[in-house]
Design goal:
Elements (H helix, E strand, L loop, with lengths): L9 E8 L6 E3 L8 E6 L6 E6 L5 H21 L6 E9 L6 E8 L4 E10 L8 H20 L14 H19 L20 E2 H5 L9 H21 L2 H10 L6 H9 L3 H4 L5 E2 L4
Parallel strand pairs: 2-6, 4-5, 5-7, 8-9
Antiparallel strand pairs: 1-6, 3-4
Helix pairs in contact: 1-2, 2-3, 3-5
The structure holds zinc ion.
Length: 284
């Protein structure tokens, strides 16, 4: 009798570009010519793996450089012990499918903090492509922000109260500041700058305060909530440096009224934070 090999626990990673058309199913196994490169990240036990089918493997090093900068930046800007592996799949296509569902199996419990898929047109520069710019200067520093924040017990999922506006606001502030420092003109027109700002809809203080992970909201409302979260945290961090605020939150044992604690530390009220045109103060 032959024993079956012990199954390695896997997590399924899914990244979708969805829309009205049928999604093309994608998985790493279908690129038999893909090669894998490894790079050290500036944190203990942390490594970047890039799997790609593009010929320009030297461009991977340039991408890795920005990922290294991003991780160092988020560690420094938050003061939190961000660490872990990042797995990046960069695949080029004759024509990138408009709608797709990319699915990959990654070993669970191996300290992988981010898995991402970036699709390029064949022959497009890896580093300079709009898709890679979005990943490097919008998605990655934002997501690393969430990874860093998850080191704080009160913010980690499953605690009594999480303050989504604060989590998204910190992540957006990090992405914005990283881009300003390392990739000006690389983000796709950062949505919080006044010049590129879309027409702001009416978001109430209550909407922002009660924004949680479960509620599905129309995309236009979510965009406004992200923008206002960004501004709120930007303002808070002008009163109290982000690392000191996060250090205090990390020591917090009682996770109730997290929002109130953050505001008290900054000496601001919630209404003050978001009192701007386009925002309606709730009638109280
Ligand atoms: Zn987020």
């Amino acid at each position: 009798m032959i024993a079956a090999p012990a199954a390695v626990a896997q997590d399924t990673f899914v990244q979708e570009m969805s829309g009205p058309g049928e999604a093309t199913a994608l998985s790493p196994e279908q690129w038999t010519n893909a090669r894998t490169q490894h790079y050290e990240l500036p944190a203990p036990d942390s490594r970047l793996t890039i799997t790609t089918n593009t010929a320009a493997v030297e461009e991977c090093a340039a991408v890795a450089n920005v990922v290294v900068q991003s991780m160092a930046f988020v560690r420094n800007a938050t003061g939190l012990d961000l660490r872990g592996d990042i797995q990046l799949y960069v695949m080029e296509f004759e024509q990138v499918p408009e709608f797709y569902r990319f699915e990959a199996q990654v070993p669970s419990g191996r300290g992988i903090i981010e898995v991402r898929f970036v699709a390029l047109e064949r022959g497009e520069s890896m580093v300079g492509s709009p898709a890679m710019s979005r990943f490097l200067f919008e998605t990655l520093p934002h997501e690393l922000g969430h990874d860093a924040l998850s080191r704080i017990p009160c913010i980690r999922k499953g605690t009594l109260e999480s303050a989504r506006w604060f989590e998204e606001g910190v992540s957006e502030v990090l992405a914005h500041r990283f881009t300003a420092q390392f990739g000006p003109n690389r983000g796709s027109g950062f949505k919080h700058t006044s010049s590129s700002r879309h027409e702001v809809g009416v978001v109430t203080v209550d909407d922002l305060y009660n924004w949680d992970h479960e509620k599905r909201l129309p995309a236009s409302v979510e965009v406004d909530l992200y923008a206002h979260s960004f501004r709120a945290v930007d303002q808070i961090t002008s009163m109290v440096p982000l690392p000191s605020l996060l250090r205090e939150l990390a020591l917090e044992k009682d996770c109730v009224r997290l929002t109130e604690r953050i505001l008290r530390r900054a000496g601001l009220s919630f209404a003050q934070l978001i009192d701007e045109p386009g925002l309606e103060s709730p009638a109280r």
